[in-house]
Each structure stands twice: as structure tokens, then as C-alpha cells.
Amino acid sequence: CSGLNTSKLCVVRFNADGTPDTSFNPDATQGGMQPDLQAGELIIEITPSQSLFGMVAVQTDQKIIVAGTCSNLTSGYFDFCLVRLHPDASVDTSFNAAGDTPGVATVAPGNFYNVARGMMIQPDGKVVVVGSCGATITAIAMCVSRHNTNGTLDTSFNPGGTVPGTRIEVIGNSNDSYAMSVARQSDGKLVVAGTCVNNSNSEFCLFRLTETGALDSAAFGTGGKVITAINSDEDAVTSVAIQSDGKIVV
């Protein structure tokens, strides 16, 4: 949505019958920074500069996680970002409380453009975000971050990586891969799915990570990765799900 000066993440909550839930941001029409908003609607102004590509998930305590892509005013690129809201739409400042903006957590898995595209909340409450990032100035990779319930990076995830709590994987032979979705198996392993360029064509591409963020190289595909050409030209992934029998659907 359009914020005061730029695009911002925005949220609407509806009642079960489709009417606006006016208990969500109930004071939206009472002046303030966005006088055109109605109760039930929220534009999240506290993220740095521009924020895009919103995703949403609800915790068991009914707090709301909104994730997306936010400007990094220092690097000039973009970061993964997460905001946690109370059920009434107020910002939960206990989330990443020690950060520059309590209530907001940002991370740059790569050095350049970090664009978040998929999110899930694990049964233990940890939040996984996937997307793409610049592994180098010319290589776009699939990227993952995992956050503790308080918004900080879970440094037990890929602890030996350049940024513990994150993982970068280049798939295919053309330095051009994008993660779009993530699903968790019953054994805690994470399946990350997206699109990569291989032999000049874009294909379905997956990798699987152990609970600690290592490639599941011994038990999944080739070295923990799978590349599948659905037809002879351009294929693109948007979502992945795990069946009850453990089979993976993309």
C-alpha cells in the first residue's frame, strides 16, 4: 500500500462473514498519520523507507507476523524484514526489543538485494523466511533466515555460515536462483522451493535442510538439491507443500 511517502507493508483483518474487523487498529479513522484508513486496516509505517511483498502468519497466541522486503538505508539495497503485531494491530515492541526499531527485525543474508518471498512459523514458534539475495554482485541465490520467537536470528541454524541464522544456496549453473516457498517436514527438515536457471532454462528447484540448517546431502536429491525441467522452456515455482505421507508437492 502507499504510505506517506512510499510503498509500505499493509494489513487488513476481516470477520468470518467478510466484514471489516473494527477491533483491529480501531483508531484508524481518528486522525493520525493515515486519516484515510478505516478501522480494520493498518499501514505499517515503522519499517525503513520502502517495504514490499507482504506475507502474513498468525502465532498460536494470536500475535501476527508480517514479513516482507525493506530498504536498507545504510547499504542502499534491501533486507528481509519482519514485524510482529498484537491482535489489536499495535506493534509488539518485545519482538527484537534490542534492535534499532523494536517490533521490527531485519536481516541481510547476502550482501546485495535480499528479497523475501515465503514465510512459515515452525511448531516451536521460530519463524523461517526464504527468498533471494545477491551472493555476489552477479550471482542471485536462494536464501533462508530463521528467527527465534523474540525476533533475533537463531544462530543455531547454520552456525558456521557467514551470517549464522541464515543460509545462501546457489542452484543451477547460471548464478540465477530464487526461493519462493518453504515447508517443514514432520522430522523438522525444511524443504525450500523456487526457480533456478539451469542450461539456459528456468526450472523447478528445491533443496532440503536439516534442523540445524545443513544441506541434507545424503538423503535428498543430488547433494541435497533437486532440479526438474517440467517442459522444454520456462518453468517457475511459487509454492511447496508436504503431504501426510511425506511426499513433496510443488
Top keywords for this entry?
single chain, 250 residues, mainly beta, 0% helix
Describe, in plain words, how this protein is organized in 3D.
The chain is mainly beta. It has no helices and 16 strands. The chain has strands at residues 10-12, 41-43, 51-58, 64-71, 78-85, 104-107, 115-121, 127-134, 140-147, 166-169, 177-184, 190-198, 201-209, 225-228, 241-242, 248-249. Strands 3-4-5-6 form a 4-stranded antiparallel β-sheet, with no helix packed on it. Strand 7 (115-121) and strand 8 (127-134) form a beta hairpin. The protein starts with 9 loop residues before the first strand and ends with a strand.
How would a crystallographer describe the biggest sheet?
A: 4 strands, antiparallel
DSSP helix fraction = under 10%
Low-confidence stretches: none
Cα Rg: 19 Å
Number of strands: 16
How are the strands of the biggest sheet laid out side by side? 3-4-5-6
Broad structural category: mainly beta
**Count of DSSP helices?**
0
> What series of H and E elements makes up the topology?
EEEEEEEEEEEEEEEE
Looking at the chains present, what oligomeric state does this protein adopt? single chain
**Backbone shape:** globular
Averaged pLDDT, please? 93
What percent strand? 35-45%
Give the termini separation: 29 Å
Question: What's a quick, concise take on this entry?
Answer:
The protein is an all-beta fold and 250 residues long. 0% of the residues lie in helices and 38% in strands.
